[in-house]
Amino acid sequence: MLSVSKEFTFEAAHMLSEHEGECKNLHGHSYKLIVEATGDIQNGMIIDFKDLKNIVKETIIDKIDHSFIYYNSSKDDVEHKIAEVLKGSGKKIFEVNYRPTAENMAMHFYNILNDNLKDKGLKVVSITLYETQKSFAKVVG
Ligand SMILES: Nc1nc2c(c(=O)[nH]1)N=C([C@H](O)[C@H](O)COP(=O)(O)OP(=O)(O)OP(=O)(O)O)CN2
Ligand SMILES: [Zn+2]
Q1: Which of 13, 129, 27 is nearest to 64 (CA)?
Q2: Ligand 1, atom 3: closest residue by C-alpha
Q3: Among the four residues 14, 86, 103, 138, which has the most C-beta atoms within 10 Å?
């Protein structure tokens, strides 16, 4: 199978309130997202890398970069208070209905991109999301 991939980076903060270790604290990551897509070849390309970049930027990166990833059904009141303060002062929040682990975020990004690329006759082969240099989650479609 022939595919194309593009890498993206973004910075974001989150907290894993249920985590028993350090990750229950508010902290940030320099995330790396790798998007792999496939489809028929037209003019020698599955999709122009520039077009793939624009889709991923518009649907994900621009919304999440330098944000607080806020789990809106968190059982942790502190998380809601942080989000409230940030929202109240016009700071950037990326609101989700799941605990923002690498696994859940990778699944969310897979669904967003699959929906968007479908219109162009393309399919997401895999989404890889690095949370740290050594830890990542991967979804294979
Ligand atoms: N399966 C998962 N485990 C953990 C996740 C996750 O999303 N999925 N996330 C975290 C924390 O967000 C944490 O910030 C990252 O954890 P970790 O890889 O342990 O980070 P370290 O930099 O400490 O890694 P080392 O390899 O030990 O340096 C926790 N777990
Ligand atoms: Zn983390």
Answers
A1: 13
A2: 101
A3: 14
Strand partners, 9: 32
Residues marked as catalytic: 23, 66, 131
pLDDT one-digit tens code per residue, 84-105: 999 999 999 999 999 999 999 9
| Parallel, antiparallel or unpaired: strands 123-130 and 136-140 | antiparallel
Amino acid type, 103: E
Show the DSSP H helices in 7-48 as ranges.
none
Residue 25 is classified by DSSP as: S
Ligand 1 neighbours (beta carbon < 6 A): 16, 23, 27, 101-103, 131-132, 134-135
Position 112: which residue type? I
- The CATH code of domain 3-61+101-140 reads 3.30.479.10
Question: Is residue 89 within a helix (H) or strand (E), and if so which, with residue range?
Answer: none
Q: Where are the domains of the chain?
A: 3-61+101-140
Q: What is the pLDDT of residue 26?
A: 97
ipTM of the complex: 0.93
Q: What does pTM read for this prediction?
A: 0.96
Measured in degrees and rounded to the nearest 5, phi and psi for residue 35 equal -110, 125
Q: Which amino acid is at 80?
A: H
